[in-house]
Amino acid sequence: MLRLLAALALSLSLATPALAQETVPQSKTQIELTFAPLVKKAAPAVVNIFTRTVVKERSSPFFDDPFFQQFFGEQQPRERVQNSLGSGVILRPDGLIVTNNHVIAKADEIRVVLSDGREFPAEVIAADEKFDIGILKIDAKGEVLPTLELKDSDDINVGDLVLAIGNPFGVGQTVTMGIVSALARTNIGVGDYGYYIQTDAAINPGNSGGALIGTDGRLIGINTAIYSKTGGSIGIGFAIPSNMVARIVDAEAAGGKLVQPWIGVSGQALTADIALSMGLPHPGGVVVQQVYPMGPADRAGLQPGDVIVGVNDRGIADPGGLRFRLATQKVGATAALNVIRRGKPVDFSVKLIEAPEEPARDETELKGEQPLNGAVVVNLSPAVSDELGVADWKGVAIAKVRRGSYPAKLGLEPGDLLIKINGKDVYSVEDAVAILGVPVDDWTLTVSRNGQTKTFEVH
Question: Would you say 269 and 289 are in contact if contact means Cβ atoms under 8 Å apart?
């Protein structure tokens, strides 16, 4: 018996090197495995984008203050030229190009350089700040340009090989390789509707707007941002999924701006603590807190306390995921919301509509000798709330704050809600104007931001 065991152990030890040898490349083809044919096909559809912006600036920020203007008058701003660079992807052979909105925002001149060195002026035909996507058009003089085909970004998986193509630091077109590190990344501080593919393929400044492609050569995302403390790549990059790009391009092709579907719910992420308190096995999803009366969700039967865990059987982890999944649908369509109610799964069929703007926004810039001079206020409605990114559907919100004004010095920001002025409730812009029109020596402002209330005393 002992001899048998010894012989078996010897045979296994001898077999181990033979098994290892089988993993060594056995042919020249395997040794020369390369992405070169893939890059050769895809790279011509990735372009460099150069922008020129004339920036007007004052010699001192004090000259924006009405107090100093009384003594020094209106000072003429100085002009300087600001140049920047980025990347883009040709999606249609007639010269339709997708890039990031932040690459082209406020640019006075945009030029596109193809991989072969040809240069064209570009026109902005669509821009979506919330999703950080811009659409450009160049006149190729009838020439058919190389393009990249869009891939369904829901078909990719963590661990898939990807290539990033762009123009980092302006050194010229560059290709890097990595994998899909994560999916459905939200709350990373980029864009209002952030929902990103994470990759460790090196992405650096100048790569913004460039292509993230799979091993089939199709576009799975638009490289948008990196996480970095130095400004260079540390292996954490983010790309906008191609499905969102497709929605914006389709809207442009139809001759209109992308309209976000609305269902009339607000809520918060289902955290581990909330899941435990609700008797649910794990976190992930959106706990419904408010349902807009007679809105699509209300008509479908959703209630506060329901947990939305998916849209059309695509899972979501938080409110950002819900916004993205709805945004990839079209207004007028019907979506299936996958919901957990009292611990049991149930689906609700919800009609997707455009957010209503009721009441009218009554946008008004506040003026006069009062602490909100220089702020623009609006009446809230579902449409305005979506624009400002606030959860409330009623009340008065600050839409803009003029630079250098007293509200700016107080720290007020767009999206802040005006709750009370001098102890009086503010229900409408008309209320705010009326209260502020009565001169007093001391002012008290009560403002809400992200559910937290703060009071300002102004003397």
Answer: no
Round to whole Å and give the CA distance between 54 and 83.
9
- Burial tier of 358 (Cβ tally within 10 Å: 0-12, 13-18, 19+): exposed
Distance CA 155, CA 328 (A): 15
106 to each of 54, 83, 120, 142, how far by Cα in Å? 9, 12, 19, 29
Q: Are 56 and 231 in contact (CB under 8 A)?
A: no
Fold (CATH) for 364-458: Pdz3 Domain (2.30.42)
CA distance 147 to 94: 9
- pLDDT value, residue 234: 77
Nearest to 208 by CA among 253, 167, 155, 171: 167
**Core vs surface per residue 222-234: b (16+ CB within 10 A) or e:** bbbbbbeeeeebe
Q: Is 318 helix (H, G, I), strand (E, B) or coil?
A: coil
Q: What is the DSSP letter of 218?
A: -
For residue 12, the SS3 value is: helix
The distance of Cα 178 from the centroid of its chain, to the nearest Å, equals 22
- In angstroms, the CA 184 to CA 241 distance is 9
Task: Kindly state the DSSP code that residue 146 receives in the 8-state scheme.
Answer: P
CA separation for the pair 64, 55 (Å, rounded): 16
Mean pLDDT by 10 residues, the chain (459 residues): 38 39 60 82 94 71 54 60 84 93 90 91 87 90 90 92 91 91 76 78 89 94 82 83 90 75 93 93 93 95 96 91 90 95 95 94 93 94 90 92 90 93 94 92 92 89
CATH 2.30.42.10 domain locations along the chain: 261-354, 364-458
Q: CB–CB of 362/378 below 8 Å? A: yes
pLDDT on residue 12: 36
DSSP string across 323-371: HHHHHTSPTT-EEEEEEEETTEEEEEEEE-EEPP--S----EE--SSST
Catalytic residue among 128, 132, 386, 416: 132
What pLDDT does residue 11 have? 40
pLDDT at 218: 94
Catalytically annotated residue among 84, 102, 306, 385: 102
pLDDT confidence of residue 2: 34
Instruction: Give yes or no for a contact between 189 and 183, defined as CB atoms under 8 angstroms apart.
Output: no
Q: Note the pTM of the prediction, 2 decimals.
A: 0.76
Q: Answer for the pair 384, 365: CB distance below 8 angstroms, yes or no.
A: no
CA 172 to chain centre: 27
282 is known as an active-site residue: no
Task: Look up 102 and say whether it is catalytic.
Answer: yes
Pick the CATH number of 153-253 from 3.40.50.300, 3.30.2130.10, 2.40.10.10, 3.40.190.10: 2.40.10.10
